[in-house]
Write a structure and sequence with these properties.
The complex is a heterodimer of chains A (440) and B (190). Chain A is mainly beta. Chain A folds into 2 domains: 167 residues, TolB, N-terminal domain (Rossmann fold, 3-Layer(aba) Sandwich), CATH 3.40.50; 263 residues, Neuraminidase (6 Propeller), CATH 2.120.10. Chain A is 13% helix and 40% strand. In chain A, strands 1, 2, 3, 4, 5 and 6 form a 6-stranded mixed beta sheet that branches. Chain A has a 4-stranded antiparallel beta sheet with strand order 9-8-7-30, with no helix packed on it. The longest helix of chain A has 17 residues. By secondary structure, chain B is of the alpha+beta class. Chain B contains 7 helices and 4 strands. In chain B, strands 1-4-2-3 form a 4-stranded mixed beta sheet. Chains A and B meet through loops of A and helix 2, helix 6 and strand 3 of B.
Chain lengths: 440, 190
């Protein structure tokens, strides 16, 4: 705890946090930093090349590079340039007693992530430690990861998650995935890739138009819309096995599925009643009830749940053009959320429930906006493009969205923004960020 | 279904052209070819007057066609039926007067050949979100269906499907292209 307090002071965080850190310490959790504090500044961290414990040194730099990338993306850390490092990753020690922390402090490092790896046959073992460079001490416990050599990226991501967990009390999202739609031939299929764009896998082979993939709350299944049977119907695919089954094949269109958080229900838009209305269905597609959100014969689509599963943000054109509304399932009350502009669609509730991202048409085209659920603070986070279909990362720190024919990710505050894949295999759209899998 | 799914989408378009052109009585329509490009030419091939069997098949009987001349007339009118789309304003699904005049011609055709069935395909331009456009496209298809049913006063075989912004005929990014894509397309089956 003492070391924790000293670090807090050194990274210039608010003194008030000392009390909070002390309280949290009582629950046996080491929290160095409150990343939600307005005065928060990114913490300088050094990641030397991973030490190879076998003859194979190929991954040494690649692993360090990946960890640097994850930690930079986290928004919590600022990774220092390895050019100024006082020790060589291959030669320096792995344990606190073998590291000259004074020299790392001098290059500005508050933390030092140190790791080694061993390749044996087709498998890799990774050992990682996080040091508080200012205190010269190990943070938490040493971490170990093992698996197929081909899964080394996942192991480095897991180390990055643990580093975030130890420093902020909240794990990172480095082992999460993004589902999206990609053009294949003349059609569109559902793909999945790592959150950093690696390991893309084509999940569906429907030779049709597939749209709107959404992860189930446990991350094991994806609901999506396909024209494979001629008209748009909702299917569920098991991500691991690829087994697919139809859940909603009612007359008319069956679109925009949204899993209810924590449950086995979905909100969907069906036009079986003549107009596009929202329904609550079970995981087999059986209708539990129609949600009376519509007005006359208006369009109601794109339901998106509040994190507590009690409310739905959705799109309705009952006032003319499409606008976003919020429907409270228990009271049956609805209220209009967006009043600015003539075209507001694709609501996406943040995991903490504090923001709703959406797509709005402005002077320069379509952009991503965020708004408070009470209608306040609406502002654009992208500018002047063809930016649509926002979805949040499970930690609420990033937004994934489609921009033209590519998928991009940005910090939720709009300060950084990058393309999901360096060279997409085709036009992409309609991303959805997976939940943390297995609690990671 | 299995067979169809295994066929490459472009081959499917070709297959539909061939099936329609040779006049085979095909009961089920394959899943829609999701490819881009005008599907206007995809419905009708050239006249198939040299075909064996001529107009004696069940299909022609159902359509009330008994001579080569009638068959040629049908094929010309069917091509016109499929080649004439109905257009909409941005974000709108109200039928304009010119749109209604086009639909009136389609009603004449449907009254004359009541055995045909029609799939009305609603489409949108590329602007706006995929999902809202799916709903908008369905409204456009519904608007034509409702007009044909009401104004035609007949019991026509009409189906609707929305492709949202998935099947533009024009891939440009300006109003000229968008205007062409905000449309109902009419696919015939007989």
């Amino acid at each position: 705890m003492f070391a924790a307090k000293r670090s807090l002071l050194l990274v210039g965080c608010c003194l008030l946090l000392l009390g909070a850190a002390g309280l949290r310490g009582a629950f046996a959790q080491t929290i160095y930093l409150d990343i939600n504090n307005a005065n928060f500044q990114k913490i300088p961290i050094a990641v030397p090349d991973f030490k190879s414990m076998s003859s194979d040194q190929q991954l040494s730099h690649q692993m360090a590079d990946l960890l640097n990338n994850d930690l930079n993306i986290s928004g919590v850390f600022r990774c220092l340039d390895p050019k100024g490092f006082p020790e060589d990753g291959q030669r320096m020690g792995l344990e606190a007693s073998q590291i000259n922390f004074q020299s790392w402090k001098q290059v500005g490092a508050n933390f030092l992530a140190r790791a080694s790896y061993q390749v044996q046959g087709g498998s890799v073992r990774l050992d990682g430690r996080l040091f508080d460079a200012t205190a010269g001490k190990l943070v938490g416990t040493p971490k170990s990861y093992g698996g197929d050599a081909g899964a080394w990226r996942q192991m480095v991501h897991a180390f990055a998650n643990d580093i975030l967990q130890m420093v902020t009390g909240q794990a990172g999202v480095f082992n999460t995935k993004v589902a999206f739609v990609q053009r294949v031939g003349g059609g569109k299929e559902i793909f999945v890739c790592d959150f950093d764009g690696y390991n893309p896998v084509q999940l569906t082979h429907d030779n049709s138009i597939d749209l709107s993939p959404v992860w189930s709350p446990d991350g094991s299944r994806i609901a999506y819309v396909s024209y494979r049977d001629g008209s748009p119907k909702i299917y569920v695919i098991n991500v691991a096995s690829g087994a697919t089954h139809l859940i909603c094949g009612y007359p008319g269109m069956n679109i925009t599925p949204a899993w209810r958080p924590g449950g086995n229900e979905l909100a969907v838009a069906l036009s079986k009643g003549g107009s596009q209305d929202l329904y609550l269905v079970n995981s087999s597609g059986g209708i539990e009830r129609k949600l009376n959100v519509g007005f006359g014969s208006s369009i109601s689509v794109s339901p998106n749940w509040s994190p507590d599963g009690r409310k739905l943000a959705y799109v309705s054109n009952e006032a003319g053009g499409p606008q976003i509304y919020i429907y409270d399932l228990s009271s049956g009350q609805k209220k209009r959320l967006t009043y600015s502009g003539k075209y507001n669609t694709s609501p996406a509730w943040s995991p903490k429930g504090d923001w709703i991202a959406y797509c709005a048409q402005g002077g320069g085209g379509f952009d991503i906006y965020v708004i408070r659920p009470d209608g306040g603070d609406a502002h654009a986070v992208t500018h002047g493009g063809r930016n649509e279909a926002p979805r949040w990362s499970p930690d609420g720190r990033m937004i994934v969205y489609s921009s033209g024919y590519a998928i991009r990710i940005m910090d939720a505050n709009g300060t950084r923004d990058w393309q999901l894949m360096r060279s997409p295999g085709g036009a992409q759209g309609l991303p959805d960020w997976s939940p943390r899998v297995n609690g990671k | 279904m299995k067979r169809k799914r295994s066929i490459y989408p472009l081959l499917m378009i070709f297959a539909i052209v061939m099936l329609t052109a040779c006049g085979c009585a095909k009961k089920t329509v394959p899943p829609p070819p999701p490819g881009y490009g005008p599907e206007n030419g995809a419905g009708m091939g050239g006249p198939s007057s040299g075909e064996m069997g001529g107009v004696s098949g069940d299909k022609w009987k159902r359509l009330g066609i008994t001579s080569e001349a009638q068959k040629r007339e049908f094929e010309d009118r069917a091509a016109a039926f499929e080649n004439q789309d109905v257009y909409f304003d941005f974000n709108g699904y109200t039928l304009s007067d010119p749109a209604k005049r086009i639909l009136d011609q389609k009603i004449d055709f449907l009254k004359r050949y009541s055995a045909v069935s029609v799939t009305i395909e609603g489409n949108c331009d590329e602007r706006g979100t995929e999902e809202y456009n799916l709903a908008l496209g369905e409204r456009r298809a519904d608007a034509s269906k409702q007009y044909i049913t009401t104004a035609g006063g007949g019991n026509f075989q009409l189906k609707t499907v929305s492709y949202g912004k998935e099947r533009p005929v024009s891939t440009g990014h300006d109003e000229a292209a968008w205007a062409k894509n905000r449309r109902d397309h009419f696919a015939l089956k007989y």
